[in-house]
């Protein structure tokens, strides 16, 4: 396969981090903005996020959760309350202190000292406290429960080291916040949200994930339980792709969210919160990208089929364009994966071959090239992005098919691509989880000898807490390892704890992570 | 009609401003957040905004404009550049100066003096300058043009006096920004966006508007031309519901947006920008609201039909609920206004009559009440929100119709309601524009004697500029009047200027405004 000339300058196996940046740039997903830690999400990257949003939002609404919008600014007092209430409270946030700019007399502008806010405002890092305030107003009786809210918003956390989509100072996300009468109801919602994330991320983004509970040390500050979905990237590291928290009555006590039960007694609500973010786009790149750029699964591709007319700047172009427009309309009438097929006829100026490679790097699922001869013969030259190369010849695996056959088979073809990307990723993931390791020294040895593609290791443990857990965390940290989660539905433990030597109570996944 | 007992405590004709606040609250659209000038948009209000977004976004994408996302923080330097470049630059904005909170030692938190930003960041009041920076990177050659971008985002302008939806410190909007090779192309886009706004606001929100050019004094700072759509509220005031700006090469020069033309020469782009915001929801309230709350036009109603089962906390409830669920599913299979009908079966606890009035105040287009007897008789009791009362009897104009007839006619019924709301508003608007006034004293007298419902006046003017225009603006201001716009396609002028006595060149609309 050495005769294949890939579209990117960096290969995954050479330098994964550099390759990642290269894909972000070559697929035209995003770029640095010049504002510290903030990125510009470009049309193709934002189009993917919009698709994720729409599919996730349908699932959110389906569950009866209602969208709302809360202010971006949160009063300092809310954080003072939370800081008193919650250990491990993070304080790196953007603080607004002034409400006016004024000329500095030297041609520049400065914050107007006369316009200093009495109380600084914080740009929301998350909306738990301000939504908690609203819940305390909106919930009076058991009749108001459950109260299930969601918000699509931008949030800001002042990050010291940023990486596009994975960790940026500003990012886009959705945050679900729900209040319930009982622990059981709140736990049910915690699991419903987790399962919704699993389904959306696996079915729509084609990212296989493992859902499970986070250990105590990885819980969201203030949560009684934190659950996550974990995806394996192509460098064998884990990416936390979504979290769902059962908050007990902790936040309800801090924000005074109470209801009168059927017997007339005041009770604190049990609350949950759950979130996913633009980080998912980073996970998509690190799972489906290859040495030619990104491969976007059809369900989240802004355009699923690109039609590239081979134009020659001649009068004949008009007939070819009309033919392509007709092809576009024919395809758009079909359904794939439950929606009308999304087709783009790319009429932008430029050479067809250059445009073809642009779309290869962007990862459009199917690229159709149509020249005058194809038009005459009623054929199309189809490139399937997930199987780009003929590995024997080292050439593009372009298929020449009759237009009618292609059009009538489009739904099935896009489904195949969606399935195949998922299967490829889950086969790789499954092949790189090592089970049955019972000695700590073997874990250490495993990661020493599998430096480039470490994968994950499943071990059994006794679920220590407090200082015993801290010791385990330190032991893992020395090898750059973390506990990802306790996979839902895994086999019961039957051995001894790899850390403490005590009887094991459950199985955990250990991995390097983003 | 004095025997009608309306659902609100305040009537429009008694106190329009108070009535407006009452509708916002009674229809559960939004509430004060406790953060200065910022509101919480509640599920019903946000649902309406989401519908507006989706319908507008479809139109935006249809035109080939691409969505993107730019950082919320803008460096001070961008504003310094703009302040030097643009007169009338507004400086009331939220300024971020610190990136960390720290304990003050007295149980509170303060901005950490150690974490002061070297250069303060501004929370975007609009994204012209940061998008201009990106355009200067993205545009190189004529082949890159037109570049048409849009962003859905939150923006912040530090407003001293705020009113929900109409003027809040933080609001949600979309901002389109486009770059073109020629003046003609940019002007065409300016008008395309204006026409898109007119169509969306009239067809989707059922708000009749007058599209036209703003006079020089009302232009966006830095624009060569500003166009607007203006809607008339029920108090006869004007609401600017959307603007579209032709920016000439002014912003391109400031941000260095240049392209190489086909002859190899560097040229500055001609740019446009256009925006609409959550203000539209305020316009919806002030146009379609009545003394019973809001009336939401079907196209933008989150739920178009509400089914209220009359439950009795008895075993028979199960059969009724099953019947209602069947009714819901039957309605949802139908199409109205080009989309599947949106039906909610409201199973929340509570008395059906109380819930009916909640939905009346919220303005759901159709409310169906279904009791055990209706189930037996195969009937529904239908309330049409736009014609709520039987004015003769003073009772609700509930219609008892056979279920089958109702279900099969749902598409037509929702279309009728959409049309009827638009017609009602445009008839009122047309009846309240006074034409043919030629003397300034008559304008003054007109507004003196029509205090409660002033309406608009069309006059002719000579289109003065500079200090002559300033004089006109002052003269109008003394009567609390402004020039709204020069209506597109109005009759040519044929008289003398009402201000200067010179020969008139065009007709303008004069009004009090939000």
Automatic annotation (TrEMBL), chains A, B:
Its main location: cytoplasm. Catalyzes the attachment of proline to tRNA(Pro) in a two-step reaction: proline is first activated by ATP to form Pro-AMP and then transferred to the acceptor end of tRNA(Pro). This is Proline--tRNA ligase. PROSITE patterns: AA_TRNA_LIGASE_II. It is found in: Cytoplasm. CDD domains: ProRS_core_arch_euk. Residues 45-297 form the Aminoacyl-transfer RNA synthetases class-II family profile domain. It is an enzyme of class 6 (ligase). GO terms for molecular function: proline-tRNA ligase activity. Its EC number is 6.1.1.15. It comes from Erythrobacter ani. Consists of three domains: the N-terminal catalytic domain, the anticodon-binding domain and the C-terminal extension. Belongs to the class-II aminoacyl-tRNA synthetase family. ProS type 3 subfamily. It catalyses: tRNA(Pro) + L-proline + ATP = L-prolyl-tRNA(Pro) + AMP + diphosphate. Homodimer. Pfam families: HGTP_anticodon (PF03129), tRNA-synt_2b (PF00587). Keywords: Aminoacyl-tRNA synthetase, ATP-binding, Cytoplasm, Ligase, Nucleotide-binding, Protein biosynthesis. HAMAP family: Pro_tRNA_synth_type3. Coiled coil: none annotated. NCBIfam families: proS_fam_I. The gene is proS.
